Amino acid sequence: xxxxxxxxxxxLVQDTTYSKYVRRYARFMAHDESNxxxxxxxxxxxxxxxxxxxKRWKVAETLEKARRAQG
Length: 71
Description:
Radius of gyration: 15 Å
Order of helices and strands: EEEE
Shape: flat
CATH class: Mainly Beta
Largest sheet: 4 strands, mixed
Number of helices: 0
CATH superfamily: Nucleic acid-binding proteins
CATH architecture: Beta Barrel
Distance between the termini: 27 Å
Structural class: mainly beta
């Protein structure tokens, strides 16, 4: 997918019965104009006009680059 990144957003939700916290995930397709994002990067996304069938978000900035294993 050229100029597209898949962003996974994690949130904690409290279970109503057992009062334990459960992780819930949502996946968003976001537009990355410069193709600079890599796997593991932390990014900020903002709403945008529809760019394709599933892309409704745009990468605003890269907050943290992923650490790469050397070797």
